[in-house]
Design a protein that fits this description.
Number of helices: 18
CATH superfamily of the largest domain: MetI-like
Largest sheet: 3 strands, antiparallel
Low-confidence stretches: none
Number of domains: 3
CATH class of the largest domain: Mainly Alpha
Structural class: mainly alpha
CATH architecture of the largest domain: Orthogonal Bundle
Shape: extended
Number of strands: 3
Strand order of the largest sheet: 2-1-3
Distance between the termini: 61 Å
Length: 435
C-alpha cells in the first residue's frame, strides 16, 4: 500500500514538474515571438522613415515653376531681313523677347542690380525653348502670345515652399525683393507649377531646373539590354551543362565553388576587371553602355547560374526518366522537357539579377560612367551614365535645388526595382509548379 502511495506521489511530482517546464517553455516561446515581432516592426519602421524622408524631399521635383510672359515675337529681333532664314532665326537674341515684358510687369525696377535680379527669375532654358518654338513654327514671328517660361531653380524653391522666407536674408539665395515679386506674380496669376516633363526627358545639366534623368534612363536601358542579352543565354547554358551533362570530378567541383564565391565578390572588383580588360586591354570606349553591360554581365552571371541550377534541380527525376524511357536522347530530354519546366525559375533568377545590376554604381564608376553627360545616348556605343551614378553625381552637387532632384531620382530608381521584383514574384506564382 505504501509503495503505491509513493509511486502516485512520484508520478504527481513528475506531472507537476513537466507542467511547470511546459509553462516555462510557453513563456519563452511567447517572449521569443514578441522579440521577433518587435524586430520586424523596428525594421519596417526604419524602412518607412527612409521612404518618408525620400518622398518628402523628392515629390516636389515632379513639378516645375513657370512664369507667364506676354512674348512679342518681334520680327526686328528674330528676322530683320524677313527671309525666314532658320540660321538667322536660330542665332537671334531671344532674351529680349521676355526681358522687356518682364520689366513691364515691374515698372518700379530701375537699377542695374535690381534688373539683374529680375532677369534671373527666368531660367536660361527659356532662350532655347523660345528658339525651338520659332524654328519649329516660323509663323509665330510677328505675333504676341502668353508663354509659360521655366523659372530659375531658386525661384522654384521659393515658390514651392522648400526655401523658407523665415530665414535671414543673408542665409538664403532669394532676397526679400524677389519674394515680393513672387507674391505679386502669384496675385496676378502669372506664376504656377506644372508637371515637370523635362525631369524625364532632359539630360544632365549644371542648372538644377534644367537637369533631368532622360540620359540616365536611356543609359540604364542600353546597359541592361546588353547585360540581359549576354548573361541570360550564357548563364542558362552554363547551368544546364553543370547540372545535366558535366561529370562529377574535381574540375566541376572547383568550378562550382568558384561560381559560389564569385556571387559574394564585391561589385567594385568587377569594375576593376572591366577597366583592366575591356578598356585598357581591348581599347573599348569609356562611359559606353556596351562596356557597362559587359561588366554587369560578369557580375550577374553567378546569380543567374545559381538560380538556374536550383530551377533545374526542382524538376523531378521522373520527368527525365520518362523521357529517356520512351527513347528521347539526353539532349532532347533537357531541351524538350526539363528546360521548359525550369524556365520560370530561371526567368525569376534573371530578373532578380537584372534588378541587382540596375542598382549598381560602384563597378560603373570604375569604367568612367561617372562622366558629366548632357546628351541623351542614341546607342550602346555613345557616352552615357545610369540612374545610380546620376544619383551619386547629384548628391555631390553643392546647389540646394539638386536635393529634390536626387530624392526624385531615387524614387524613380526604387520604382523600377520594385517593378522588376514584382514581375519576378508574379512570374513565379504564375508558372511555378509544385511537385
Amino acid at each position: 500500500m505504501s509503495d503505491s502511495i509513493d509511486s502516485l506521489a512520484a508520478s504527481t511530482k513528475a506531472i507537476h514538474k513537466v507542467e511547470h517546464s511546459l509553462k516555462r517553455r510557453r513563456v519563452q516561446e511567447q517572449r521569443f515571438k514578441r522579440v521577433g515581432l518587435f524586430a520586424v516592426l523596428l525594421g519596417l519602421s526604419f524602412v518607412a522613415l527612409l521612404f518618408i524622408n525620400i518622398v518628402s524631399k523628392g515629390y516636389s521635383a515632379f513639378v516645375a515653376t513657370h512664369i507667364a510672359i506676354e512674348v512679342n515675337f518681334s520680327q526686328e529681333v528674330l528676322d530683320p531681313a524677313g527671309n525666314r532664314d532658320l540660321k538667322v532665326i536660330g542665332n537671334a537674341d531671344y532674351r529680349q523677347l521676355y526681358r522687356e515684358p518682364l520689366r513691364a510687369l515691374f515698372p518700379e525696377v530701375s537699377g542695374r542690380k535690381d534688373k539683374r535680379e529680375l532677369y534671373r527669375m527666368i531660367s536660361s532654358a527659356a532662350d532655347f525653348s523660345l528658339r525651338d518654338m520659332v524654328v519649329a513654327d516660323p509663323a509665330l514671328i510677328g505675333q504676341t502670345k502668353t508663354i509659360w517660361l521655366l523659372a530659375d531653380d531658386e525661384i522654384d524653391m521659393a515658390f514651392k515652399g522648400t526655401l523658407s522666407r523665415e530665414l535671414p536674408e543673408s542665409e538664403r539665395p532669394v532676397s526679400d525683393k524677389e519674394f515680393a515679386w513672387i507674391d505679386q506674380l502669384k496675385s496676378q496669376g502669372k506664376i504656377d507649377t506644372f508637371f515637370n516633363w523635362g525631369f524625364f526627358t532632359n539630360g544632365d545639366s549644371r542648372e538644377p531646373e534644367q537637369a533631368g534623368i532622360g540620359g540616365a534612363i536611356a543609359g540604364s536601358f542600353y546597359t541592361l539590354l546588353i547585360t540581359l542579352m549576354l548573361s541570360f543565354p550564357i548563364g542558362v547554358a552554363a547551368a544546364v551543362y553543370l547540372e545535366e551533362f558535366a561529370p562529377t570530378n574535381k574540375w566541376t567541383d572547383m568550378i562550382e565553388v568558384n561560381i559560389n564565391n564569385l556571387a559574394a565578390v564585391p561589385s567594385i572588383v568587377f569594375g576593376l576587371l572591366g577597366l583592366a580588360m575591356f578598356i585598357n586591354f581591348f581599347g573599348m570606349p569609356r562611359s559606353a553602355p556596351l562596356v557597362g553591360g559587359l561588366v554587369l554581365t560578369l557580375m550577374t552571371l553567378p546569380t543567374i547560374i545559381i538560380a538556374s541550377r536550383a530551377a533545374l534541380k526542382s524538376v523531378p527525376p521522373s520527368i527525365r526518366e520518362a523521357a529517356l524511357g520512351i527513347g528521347a536522347s539526353r539532349m532532347q530530354t533537357v531541351t524538350h522537357h526539363v528546360l521548359p519546366l525550369a524556365l520560370p525559375g530561371m526567368l525569376t533568377g534573371t530578373i532578380i539579377g537584372m534588378a541587382q545590376a540596375l542598382g549598381e554604381s560602384a563597378p560603373l564608376l570604375m569604367i568612367g560612367m561617372v562622366a558629366f553627360i548632357v546628351d541623351i545616348p542614341s546607342g550602346p556605343m555613345d557616352p552615357a551614365t545610369v540612374l545610380p551614378v546620376q544619383v551619386f553625381l547629384w548628391a555631390d552637387s553643392p546647389e540646394r535645388a539638386f536635393v529634390e532632384k536626387t530624392s526624385a531620382a531615387i524614387m524613380v530608381l526604387l520604382g523600377f526595382l520594385i517593378l522588376m521584383n514584382l514581375i519576378a514574384v508574379l512570374l513565379r506564382r504564375r508558372f511555378e509548379r509544385r511537385w
